[in-house]
Amino acid sequence: MKDYNQSKKLPFQKLNGISEKTIAIHHNKLYQGYLKKWQEIQEKLKTADKSSANATFSELRELKLEETFAANGVLLHEAYFDSLGGEGDPKGKIKEALIKDFGSFENWQEEFKALGMAARGWVILAFDFNDGKLHNYLTDLHNQGGVWGTSPLLVLDVYEHAYFIDYGSDRKSYIEDFFKNINWSVIDKKFQKL
Ligand SMILES: [Fe+2]
Hints:
mainly alpha, three-stranded antiparallel β-sheet, 7 helices, Helix Hairpins, 2 domains, binds fe (ii) ion, 11% strand, globular, 3 strands, minor pseudopilin epsh fold
């Protein structure tokens, strides 16, 4: 059960290529920031003025919009950190399912990496309960581009804060290093729990 009052600890000590400084800023400032804002929004919603609800601008509208931004900011970052700390060696039922749904592991990987270059925010490998298949999704914002009824498994953050300190504008090398750090055991466990 998710508790938005609790922050999740990093599941690893060190990564290959992605520096401790980048991860510290990413986890301790940005991720924690989303969590605090989610909590602040929940407090404000308790007393938000419902009588002035308006689709152009109203307190209620803005709070409800940013509630999804903050919540997904928390959930996607947790899934991103959970995706890391391994040796990049694909294994388990998730590997079999990727081969089944994408034709080959290489096909899936090629698409996921290309989406990493095309996205402005996130690339997400998710299981879709609607059709029972794995899909890659691209989103530019935390609260845009998701599909209802899907569960994220592997999450790649391509906002510049995730890589610029270590790689400058060389996003391609960051994505290559992300793949070397994927913890497939964790992804497989998440998949098998669905
Ligand atoms: Fe991020």
